[in-house]
Specification:
This protein has 427 residues and is of the alpha/beta class. It contains 16 helices and 14 strands. The structure holds ligand SAJ. The site of ligand SAJ has 21 residues, from helix 8.
């Protein structure tokens, strides 16, 4: 099937890179976002997302004339829905954006069009939610137009590469739909494109992120056990991973981001009687910021009145995304326990955590600090020289929640050094 005009709904972490990649491959692309501010700033050449290479790609897409952005969709050969699916307070999926994006397509849907849902969604969303809305056009899914679910699987920080290189699963509500979806991706995806049905594709995406969540949960639980038993979890994991069939992930302050900390709940919502391990793993990871705060308290001999320089607030290294960030939670816990917490997030310097104070530079954050606490292993933080740090702060306590700092170097610079998941031998 041939396409020339593509409408991408949602100009966020997935939609914007996808729209500009398609534009750079010669398609005429309409980028749609209901947020007027996003549209205005894109038109002004501002990119609201920090992602390596994205700014250059988007600017080139605009310059070529192939990418235009609007608040509403219009007629196109294919519609790609890439809007967020957050979770509500009660951990159910919030499908409002998917519903309204789908509804907004209905007036423009024509015979022979392709509609692709890419937003991570609970199982059966394509057949039970999206298809019935689109039927409101009077056209029949799978007969008059093609309908697919094709999950995005890109890693923030590597989006542009992975968009092209990763294998892609395209689930159609029938074979013809899956084939139409493949034809569109084949124009720019270099990874393998595998066809299946829509519900399998939805489940594949949730399984991937759930698998990772459960595996991080076991690493985090090992960290807790290691502290209890006076063991260094990093050493223990490294040794266990020498076994040819073991590959334990990294412990840390918790699991954040808009994907792994959210998606497993979609299984729990749809099958609470079955998704028992999945729910438990979510609870372990959600409890990890509080565990980390307790470890920090232990290392400092109490938190009240202590002045802490907390490094990083993003949900993981080298990204600007603060959604569901465990670092934010740890900082909040420390402040709730009466520490004076000064945070520094180089990718979003004006942002702080509740009860904490944002600083613009590392030097300012360290000034007057009793302790330095690493919450996110951003590259500049990984490379910090303890002797340089010692010049800016009076205190000599360092805590590493990511297992990346070199103990010997910190101790040599005179710091009392603690790491998450390392129990003291004497305990
Ligand atoms: N984390 C750990 N220990 C680890 C690995 C990660 O504590 O060993 C933490 C991170 O610090 C972060 C969270 O887990 O807070 C998630 O980070 P991540 O790098 O594992 O994943 P995301 O959320 O950035 O991207 C994931 C990816 N999914 C998988 O690796 C299965 C990506 O491929 C997906 O496209 C993305 O979710 C998504 O959009 O669903």
């Amino acid at each position: 099937m041939e396409f020339s005009k593509i409408c991408v709904l949602g100009m966020g972490y997935i939609g914007l890179p996808t729209a500009s990649t398609l534009a750079s491959h010669g398609y005429k692309v309409l980028g749609v976002d209901v947020n007027r501010h996003v549209i205005d700033s894109l038109r002004d050449g501002e990119i609201h997302i920090q992602e390596p290479g994205l700014k250059t790609l988007v600017h080139a897409a605009f310059r070529s004339g192939n990418l235009q952005v609007f608040e509403k969709p219009n007629e196109a050969d294919a519609f790609i829905i890439a809007v967020p699916t957050p979770i509500l307070e009660d951990k159910r999926a919030d499908m409002r954006y998917v519903i309204s994006a789908t509804e907004s397509i209905v007036p423009y849907l024509r015979k022979g069009n392709l509609v692709m849902l890419e937003s991570t969604s609970p199982p059966r969303t394509t057949v039970d939610l999206v298809a019935p809305i689109l039927e409101g056009s009077g056209l029949r899914p799978g007969v008059d137009f093609y309908l697919t679910y094709s999950p995005e699987r890109v890693m923030p920080g590597r989006i542009l590469q992975e968009l092209i290189e990763n294998a892609r699963v395209v689930g159609g509500i029938n074979n013809a739909s899956a084939e139409a979806g493949r034809d569109l991706y084949a124009s720019f995806v270099r990874g393998e494109i595998l066809l299946t049905d829509a519900t399998t594709a939805e489940m594949v995406k949730l399984m991937e992120n759930t698998y990772r969540d459960v595996n991080i949960a076991i690493a985090n639980e090992f960290a807790r056990l290691a502290e209890r038993f006076g063991v260094d979890v990093w050493e223990a994991i490294a040794l266990a991973n020498l076994h040819p069939r073991i590959d334990i992930l990294r412990a840390g302050p918790g699991v954040g981001g808009h994907c792994i900390s959210v998606d497993p709940w979609f299984f729990v919502e749809k099958a609470p009687d079955l998704a028992l391990l999945i729910k438990q793993a979510r609870m372990v990871n959600d409890g990890q910021p509080s565990f980390t705060a307790a470890s920090i308290s232990h290392a400092l001999g109490g938190l009240e009145g202590r002045r802490i320089a907390a490094l990083g607030l993003a949900y993981k290294a080298d990204v600007d995304d603060l959604r569901e960030s465990p670092a934010l939670e740890v900082a909040k816990h420390l402040a709730e326990r009466r520490a004076r917490v000064f945070t520094y997030e180089p990718f979003a310097p004006s942002v702080s955590a509740p009860g904490c104070f944002a600083k613009d530079s590392l030097e300012e954050t360290l000034a007057g600090a009793d302790a330095i606490v690493l919450l996110v292993d951003h590259r500049p933080f990984r490379q910090l020289k303890p002797c340089w740090v010692a010049e800016f702060m009076p205190g000599r306590i360092a805590f590493d929640s990511r297992g990346v700092w070199d103990r010997a170097a910190w101790e040599e610079a005179g710091f009392q050094f603690s790491v998450l998941g390392v129990g003291s031998k004497g305990d």
